[in-house]
Request: fold
Amino acid sequence: MENNERIIKFSEAVAKIKSELAKDVVGQTDIIDSVIIAIVAGGNILLEGVPGVGKTRLVRSLGRVLSLPFSRIQFTPDLMPSDITGTVVINKGEDGRMTSEFRRGPIFANLVLADEINRATPKTQAAMLEVMQEHKVTVQNTTYPTCEPFFVLATENPIEQDGTYPLPEAQMDRFMFKLIMKFPGVDELTDIVNMTQKTMDETAEAVVDGETILEMRALAATVPVIPEIMNYAMRLVANTHPERPESVDSAHKYLKYGASPRAAQALITSAKVRALLTGNYNVSYEDIDALAPAILRHRVKINYTASNDRLTADDVIALLIKETHNQR
Amino acid sequence: MCKFTYARVKYKEVFYIMSEHFFKIKKHFNRDALIKSILFGLAFGALVSGLLVLILTLSGVNFPVFLYVLIGLGAALAALLAGFLAFRKNDIATARVLDREYALREKVETMVVFRDEDGEMFKLQRADAERTLSLLSIKKSLMKRFGTALAALVLASAILLTNVVIAVAGNRTDDSSDNKEESFSVTEWQRNALAALIEEAKGYAINEELRLGMVAELERLLDAIDDTSTRRKLREEVVASIVVIDLLTENVNTYKKIGTALGACENITVKLLALAILSLNGIGFSESLAPVSKKFEGAMYRSEIEAFVLGADSSLNALTLNADDPLLVKTKELVFSLDAVLKLTTTNENVIRARIERAFSNASDGMGTALSAQYENKVKSDAVIQKLIDIFEIPEQDIPPLLGDIVPTVDVSDEDDSSGSDKENTGGYGSGNNLFGSDDVIYDPIYKEGGAGYVKYGDVLADYYKQIEDLLISGKLDEETQRKIINYFARLSDGTKKD
Reply:
């Protein structure tokens, strides 16, 4: 297929996904764009928001739209790793012979919603690590690959901090984006209520499949990035490290530690997808700047100075972007 | 053409064919860069010329106009080249300007950077960028494109004009008197007057060396003034002659050297002798010598003579003058004569007094004659100088201080001096810090503005003396009247009042 046709198919797929999701999810257009970017780029998302803003609904609708098997894992403190990955069970056959069989866990789906992931114990959280990174599960020395495309959308509830286990940096780093779903506005709330008065069921229909997602991913990988923008993205990530003398002033002043090289990979990969999403055939500075907050906010740690100055991680990232531009 | 060059040329052609619009825009930018460079270059050239005009002209350095123009053009050309190199944009720079100014999200720069790539996405990207460029309108107003350069040119031109005006105005002020000089030429009258002065000087009864030197200098001046074309040059020639004549007179007249040497002596009587010599009063010299001879009238005359001879001898021997100088000879004779008095074996006071009197009488005649001759030298020298000033209208400020106007002073104040009630008058006359006459008050009918009034005699003596001097030099008085006047002022010269 000519690239031109692939571009057209890409644009059509995105448009369809958005229009179908809009049937079930009111507003949250930025979140939807970011979710699409993450799926196409092959990344996982950490979604933060108060209960009832539509996190689970979004992922369920997404599964329907993408024609992808979807599973939901509700994390609780008593959840065991085997509850996620699956376990080996002993079966007695009709002939009376005992056989073992691996029963796959809910992780073996294309789309996995890990609800309230910070409620599970570190041991259980660690079980997610291998799957999210490797896209495979190893049980009793046997490796079971997950489905492709594989995408984890985890949620965190910021309110219920009692009885939670903060996600370790290693696991946080495996999420391409951290998105914050804000409480909807009054108009959006009205639309939500009106919609759910009619029906609570998701009405979005399947418009693409997994193969299409993989084709979109392959196309996005070919989007060119000029060396200056590549350099800018690398400097932006490097500037999050206060221990570097060359880092910008805001890093020295407000950050405790910075982002890993995965952040740099995520920036470029997702920027290519965003470029295509916005009708461009090349990555621009605007793409990097638009994606930087979602990619960096969970990978950097602000210090007490920032807290005293009432600055959030997003505020500090905005300063870093400005100062990195000035370095050009 | 070698393969490589051919490939490069072909590649560039291909690229620019693909990016026709980009090529057009780049040409447009470079055309603007050239125009901007020309404007800035002209501005720089005007600024350099203007500054040069101002600095050099006010420093008195005159360049021909074409040189300023040439330097300005050179500076303009250099600035134009530098400006074009700075303003001209290559492909990447052009792309960045377009992306930034028209918010193209790095489309054009990506197109330029990856123009060598063959991938499908690159081709799509290039086509998309080219499409965007085809819809772009880069036309801007002249002010937006060249506003800064035009402003620089206007400012530099204003500076150039201002500097030229200042320089021309400054030159006009400086040359205002020179303009008179430019048109000046020595008149026939002046030439004749100088010739007459030469003839007059030839007949002066003054020191031969001085007379010959004076005449030679005047003749040189007569030759020189024909070559002068400006007033300033003429003044310089005349002032030079004045200085030469003044110097000749000082070299010939020895009274100052002898008076200064004697005045440096500690002995008060020697100082009084110095004062008498420095009065340059040949005719009334006996009066000037009186205070000296008085010193030997007392009972301690022997010690006085001893001290006088010792001091005077020492001072005179230190002089490096011609041994035949008449004043020096006669002064030494006086000293010798007084020394001889000490060697007399007689104790007859009358004889001794008579010898002393004779010594002073001889000195009065001899030294008086020598001083008269030197006085005549000075008077004639002053007369010639004054005539030169008058003939060629030399302003007073152009005349340097002359040696002849400087009269050494001698401090003869002595606590043991019992010469009477004239202690408050220190004597002497001259210029500068010296006292003129006494502090007595006299009635002057015309001195003060608005009419008569009482003035200190010391305040008007110099003026009186000047008038008398002019009268004496004018030759309008007969010899006897001249002597009376000279004697009168000689009495005042030592600060003593006599009836």
About this structure: Residues 323 and 329 of chain B are 7 Å apart (CA to CA). The radius of gyration of chain B is 45 Å.
